[in-house]
From TrEMBL:
Pfam families: SBP_bac_5 (PF00496). This is ABC transporter substrate-binding protein. The keyword Protease does not apply. Residues 1-25 form the signal peptide. Residues 73-420 form the Solute-binding protein family domain. Keywords: Plasmid, Signal. CDD domains: PBP2_NikA_DppA_OppA_like_13 (cd08517). It comes from the Bacteria. Its main location: periplasm. InterPro entries: Peptide/Ni-bd, SBP_5, SBP_5_dom. Belongs to the bacterial solute-binding protein 5 family.
Amino acid sequence: MKPNRFHLAVYAGLMAAALSTPAIAQNRGGTLVQITQPEPPNLASYISTAGPIAQVTSKIFDGLLEYDFSLAPKPSVAESWTVSEDGKTITFKLRQDVKFHDGQPLTSADVQFTVMEVLKKVHPRGIATYKDVVSVDTPDAHTVVFNLANPAPYLMMALSSAESPILPKHIYGEGDIKTHPNANQPIGSGPFKFTDWRKGELVRLDRNDDYWQEGKPYLDRIVVRFIADSSTRTAALEKGEAHVAGQGAVPYNDVKKLAALDSITVTTRGYEMISPMVELMMNTQKPPFDNQKVRQAINYAIDRQFVIDNVWFGFGKAAKGPISSNFESNGLFAAGKDYSVPDRIDIANKLLDEAGFPKGPDGFRFEITHDITPYGEEWQRFGEAVQQDLAKIGVKATLRYEDLPTWLKRVYTDYDFDLTSNFLFNLADPVIGVHRGIHSDRIKPGTVFVNGSRWSSPETDALMNEAAVATDVFKRRDLYKQLVEKVSEASPIAYVLELNYPTVISSEFEDVVVSPLGIYGNFASAYKK
């Protein structure tokens, strides 16, 4: 086994032993109330990646693996695994004491069904993540072998309960998976069982007394509440009527107020595998954004620190390119061109002059429409900040705010936009979260949150293709360094800030956020003091 291969490993021994050791005694009992906003459209995280869904279902389902804060995989249902020297075969050894909530054992057949018939075919990201999985062998009930067409090191980062939930074949294998009756009555093997969904109000999850991690979960139940009014959500946390909220469910200006209370703890840990990125995407197939100098000028114009301080109230850091700094832990982060230099406005004006867009008598060079991501008040304020920044370089921006379906169609189907704010997760590996925004094969009309700028180049495509199959971490690091340099220079997207989501937690509870998935974790370790 070569130490410089990121995914080539056998995770057994101490790690597996530690996970199977009886849990240290903690207080048992109690109900944790989680606020999730908005209410999920369904509880089928295997066919939809809408953010609110997995905040619920990650407690119901298990994944093959989980992850630590350094983004290293650790055992879950798979207690150990090996990757072949050529990277084309991954063998998982499953625990033998895992049962689904209906009492049936979880076996290799369930993993095979989940990957080949569900995630590979209908999961929005799984279609790409599992594309190189050509077959899954089940030599016995507790051995699973992934056979790959090409090495896929990123695949090892997509096996959590939130991203790749394991489904019971005997239930979900009957009927059409897209319209399955258990989409809203899920059955998994996780620490909590689905009990009830009162639409518009709450989902109730009760303790799985047969959970394979001995002694866990500690809580009696989790109640996930849906509260439309933002001030009411804040008040529920302040009064102790709710105990945890994340993923932007609490207005950022209210988080500071709640953090001052002795009854509340606020953390920004728990999004290391999500890595949210605030962006400005330019329509590179439409003048004036078909001109690289114009795109670079827009990038220079944005005052990132002002946006961080005044729109997201300090919960962020300036982006350095398409790859989040969270990837420093596994060596894949690289910084691109520095667009936040002190003389950035002077540089931007010079670039626009060189591009052939002089200022007119009114002080403006040209006029554009800036479409605002329809996600709430923060995004409207961000739009106003962008409008002010662009005016400093002679670009007049008219703001447009539409409902989500209209915006998605305009940006990703009709490509009827000039400049739009955007929001993409880097996720757990650049192949999963970064490539989709800049690769040629992700220019897919009608598919949302992919390459909407329609910029691409054969050179950067080749770098991404090579990085996707490279098993040597040092080689991947070099490839991504080259990619970031070229994308940053071409500037189809202005990467503005890495958003640090705050999670608000009642001080009555401990060990709520214990992984880089944060509120997408399974809460098996959470307990009431």
